[in-house]
């Protein structure tokens, strides 16, 4: 199975979520699946701060890969665009919700 794993959040930092995602990628690859990551380490510098350009980049990467499944984690800003792609191009999209970025505020 060919997969595209989109994990391009708003910030590039090491977290348990990213560690989990990469462990999942390695596991899938060990089972014979082809996995392409769209992550801070694979995109042009500064891209995630440019929402429209980033959406176009992610869409092009998915379309170019022609995957059997798109997995989205830490990339909720791309969810609407990927949902639309699903309607037109038929790539199934699986969303992993393990952390809500918009609740990342320190509370006193």
Topology:
Blueprint: E1 2-6, H1 16-30, E2 34-38, H2 51-65, E3 69-73, H3 79-89, E4 93-96
Parallel strand pairs: 1-2, 1-3, 3-4
Describe the structure.
By secondary structure, the chain is α/β, with parallel strands linked by helices. It contains 3 helices and 4 strands; from the N terminus they run βαβαβαβ. α1 links the parallel β1 and β2. The mean pLDDT is 80.
Short summary of the structure?
Helices cover 38% and strands 18% of the residues. It is an alpha/beta fold. It is globular.
Order of helices and strands: EHEHEHE
State the shape. globular
Tell me the domain tally. Answer: 1
Structure annotation, total helices: 3
The span between the termini is 46 Å
CATH class: Alpha Beta
Structural class: alpha/beta
| CATH architecture heading | 3-Layer(aba) Sandwich
Q: Proportion of β residues?
A: 15-25%
Strand order of the largest sheet: 2-1-3-4
What's the β-strand tally?
4
List keywords for this structure.
4 strands; globular; 38% helix; single chain; four-stranded parallel sheet; 108 residues; Rossmann fold; alpha/beta
């Amino acid at each position: 199975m060919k997969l595209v794993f989109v994990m391009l959040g708003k910030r590039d930092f090491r977290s348990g979520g990213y560690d989990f995602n990469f462990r999942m990628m390695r596991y899938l690859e060990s089972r014979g699946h082809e996995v392409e990551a769209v992550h801070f380490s694979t995109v042009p510098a500064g891209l995630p701060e440019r929402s429209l350009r980033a959406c176009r980049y992610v869409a092009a990467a998915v379309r170019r890969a022609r995957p059997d499944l798109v997995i989205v984690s830490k990339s909720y800003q791309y969810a609407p665009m990927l949902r639309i792609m699903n309607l037109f191009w038929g790539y199934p999209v699986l969303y992993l919700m393990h952390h809500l970025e918009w609740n990342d505020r320190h509370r006193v």
